[in-house]
Design brief:
By secondary structure, this protein is of the alpha/beta class. Helix content is 29%, strand content 25%. The chain is built from five helices and 13 strands. The strands form three sheets. It has a six-stranded mixed sheet with strand order 1-2-3-10-12-13, with helices on one face. The longest helix has 21 residues. The chain is elongated, with a radius of gyration of 23 Å. 21% of the residues are buried.
Length: 251
Amino acid sequence: MTKFEEIHLFQKFQENYKNMPLGKVLYDDKPDVTFTTSNGEIIGIELTECIYDEILMKESEYQIKFNEKVIEKLEPKISFKFYLDIILDTKNPLRQNQIESTINDIIEVCIEEFGDLNQYESKCLAQLDVDWNKAPLHIQQQFLERGYRKLPKSVLSIQMSRFDILEKSRHSESKGGVIPDFTDYNLSSILLKKDKALKNYKICDQYWLLIGEGADFYSYINQVRIKKKFETKFDKVFIYRRWHSEVIVIK
C-alpha cells in the first residue's frame, strides 16, 4: 500500500470502530501508525492488505499502469471523458522496447473506433490474431460486426465507455471470477509475516494489526471465516471491510 492508502484505511477504521479511543495519530513506519490515547497510552498499529492472490496482484498492477499510460496520451486526443479497459496477454508480455510503440498503436485504434461514441455508449474490441487476408470479404465483415479486430501484439481486448460527467478519464478494471472467503489460512499467512516483523517495531504499550480489504479483485473477500484458535503477538487484530464500512474484531 502507498502512504496515502494507509492513511485512508486508518481513517476509515477510526470512523467505524466503535471502541476507538480518543487520541492523537502519527503516521510513521514500524509500525505504520502510532496512536497516543488521551491517557498517554501508546498503541502501535500495523496496516496491511488481505491479498489472497499475489500473482493476480502483480498482473493487475501491470495492467493498471499500462492503461494509465495510454489514458494519459489518449485523453487530449478524444473530445469526451471515458472509462478505458485494455486487457493484455500476460502469457505473452510486451518487451520493454515494445511498450511505447504498442501504446501509440492502441491510441490510433481508439481514435478510429471510439471517436464517435455517444454519451453512455460502450464498445468492446477483441483480438482475432489470424491472417485476415486469407478470409473472404464477407467473413471479414462478420468478424468486424462481432467486434473482432487485428489489435496490436499482446493486446487481448480494448473497451471504452463514454461518460461526459467524468472530470478525468479513468481505467475501469474488468476482472472477474469467484470471490473467495478470508479463512484461517489467509490469516495465518499474514500473522506469520507480521509477527516476525514485530520485533523491529518501536516500543509501544499495545500493538494492533489492521487488515484491510483492498479495492482490487485480488483482495476482495466474500465472507470472513475464522474458525480455529490462533496465536499472535498482536494484542488486537481487525479486518476492515471496505465495501461494507465494517470493522470485524478477530482478536
